[in-house]
From TrEMBL:
Cofactor: [2Fe-2S] cluster
Record organism: Qipengyuania xiapuensis
UniProt keyword terms in alphabetical order: 2Fe-2S, Iron, Iron-sulfur, Metal-binding
InterPro entries reported for this sequence: NuoE-like (IPR002023), NuoE_dom (IPR042128), NuoE_N (IPR041921), Thioredoxin-like_sf (IPR036249)
Keyword Cell membrane annotated: no
Protein name listed in UniProt: NAD(P)H-dependent oxidoreductase subunit E
Basic and acidic residues bias: start-end ranges: 210-223
Length: 223
C-alpha cells in the first residue's frame, strides 16, 4: 500500500514549495468550494482544496501531483486550520499523494474480487515495464500503487490511472492502455470488454428480461 507519511521536511523541499500559492484559476475554484458552506464553516472545504492544490502541483511538475508539506501548510492557512488537522486528512485518504509520483499514477486493485479475476497478472504487466510499488519509474512516467477495493467488483479486475478507471482488464488490455498513455494518447476509459457498456451482464441478460422493452411489473408473478 502507499506510504502515508509526508515527504521529509528538508531545506530543498522548502526552497521548491515554500512559496506555493493558488494561481488565479485555482484560487477561483478554491473560493467557490468554500462558498458552498455556511459562514464559519470554511474548514469543511479542506478536501476539495487539498485536491486542487495537488492538481496545481501536478500541472507545475507534469505529474499526477502530490502534497509537499509546505503546500499542506498553505491550505491550512487558507482555511485558518491547524496544520496537523489538514495533515490528518491528507494522510488518511488515498486520493492524496504524500510523495512525488509519475505522470501517470497506476493504482491496481488487489482486493479479493480483482485478485480472483486476475489482478496478479496486471501487477506482472506493470513490473515488466519497470514499475515498482511506491516508486517513480526511471522515465518519470509511472508510479505503481496497490490499493483496496474501488467499487468496480462487477467489472474486475480494474485499475485507476489518474482520474480514469479501466475495467475488465487482462494483461494484454492493460499493455494497450499503457502503450497509448506513453504516446500521449487518451485511451477509452471504463470497461474494456467488447460490446459491454458499463457493468451490465457480460453474456446478455439472464433475469428481468421483459424490462428491456418496457417497465414490466413482475409483482404479480412473485410466489
Amino acid at each position: 500500500m502507499a506510504d502515508r507519511n509526508p515527504a521529509p521536511d528538508t531545506p530543498e523541499l522548502r526552497e521548491r514549495w515554500g512559496g506555493f500559492e493558488f494561481n488565479e484559476a485555482y484560487r477561483a475554484k478554491a473560493d467557490k468550494a468554500i462558498a458552498r458552506y455556511p459562514e464559519g464553516r470554511q474548514r469543511s472545504a479542506v478536501m476539495p482544496l487539498l485536491d486542487l492544490a495537488q492538481r496545481q502541483v501536478g500541472e507545475e511538475t507534469d505529474t499526477q501531483g502530490w502534497l509537499p508539506l509546505p503546500v499542506i501548510e498553505y491550505v491550512a492557512d487558507y482555511l485558518d486550520m491547524p496544520v496537523i488537522r489538514v495533515l490528518e486528512v491528507a494522510s488518511f485518504y488515498f486520493m492524496y499523494n504524500m510523495k512525488p509520483v509519475g505522470k501517470y499514477h497506476v493504482q491496481v486493485c488487489g482486493t479479493t474480487p480483482c485478485m480472483l479475476r486476475g489482478s496478479d497478472g496486471l501487477f506482472e504487466t506493470c513490473k515488466k515495464r519497470g514499475m515498482k510499488k511506491g516508486e517513480v519509474s526511471e522515465d518519470g512516467l509511472w508510479t505503481l500503487t496497490e490499493v483496496e477495493c474501488m467499487g468496480n467488483c462487477a467489472t474486475a479486475p480494474m485499475v485507476q490511472i489518474n482520474d480514469d478507471n479501466y475495467e475488465d482488464l487482462t494483461p494484454e488490455r492493460l499493455d494497450t492502455i499503457l502503450d497509448a498513455l506513453a504516446k500521449g494518447e487518451q485511451p477509452k476509459a471504463g470497461t474494456q470488454e467488447p460490446g459491454r457498456h458499463t457493468s451490465e451482464p457480460a453474456n446478455a441478460l439472464s433475469s428481468l428480461e421483459k424490462m428491456t422493452e418496457e417497465n414490466h411489473d413482475y409483482r404479480g408473478e412473485w410466489s
